[in-house]
Fold this sequence. Notes:
heterodimer; A: mainly alpha; Double Clp-N motif; 8 helices; 0% strand; B: mainly alpha; 3 helices
Amino acid sequence: MFEAIKSKLNDIGTIKLLCERAEAHALLDQQREPGAEHFLLAALDLPDGTARLALEQVGTEPDAVRAAIERQYTDALRSIGLNANMPADPPMAAKPGVYQAAASGREVMEELAATRKHHSPLLGVHVVGIVAGMPHGVAARAFRVLGVDCSALKSAADAIAEGGRVKAFDR
Amino acid sequence: MVDLHDITIPTDPDEALAAVVALRRLADSIERQAVRSALRQGWSWSRIAQALGISKQAAHKRLSDVAADNGST
Lengths: 171, 73
């Protein structure tokens, strides 16, 4: 009972940190509302380290994700014959008020909520598993830039998450 | 100079839609830089809004943080 309450409180703290980091990544990326790609970067920041582990298991350097996100924008512009790099802008300032995510970011949060019973505890790798399962959008294109096999990443993420769950039950 | 005749729209929807997203992001970035520059040159929000073809309220709502960056409101 005590462990269940403790786990729930830990999950709330993780969600708070995840949302704050996702917003910070979005603002750095000149976007007000975090999308799935920002939640992915936020998951890589979580202290549990499982998101980074999942990427490493499929042969991808976690620190390369940010550059891949940027690269897919320039690749997309190049695909229509436009050679343009995004002008360097200072990070946007956070606006006070209700937390709002972009549609893809909301999709990540809704999926996390829908699968919360399987978490205990919530880990960064759960976010990676969800984002790896999204076939379209900025994050999916960034994974393609990195040459990530998304189904292999999802399997790796699920296996790590399952391991984390077993460990939590053993405690 | 970009010749619009050189712009090709990919037939793969995923690629074409990715280009739309990237163009919007580029346009947003150019808008913010242009507004920052206008504010530095003393333009009012009414004038900026008129130039962007949107209401003053809409311009202020979307871009007021540019003013904050710029040290003005």
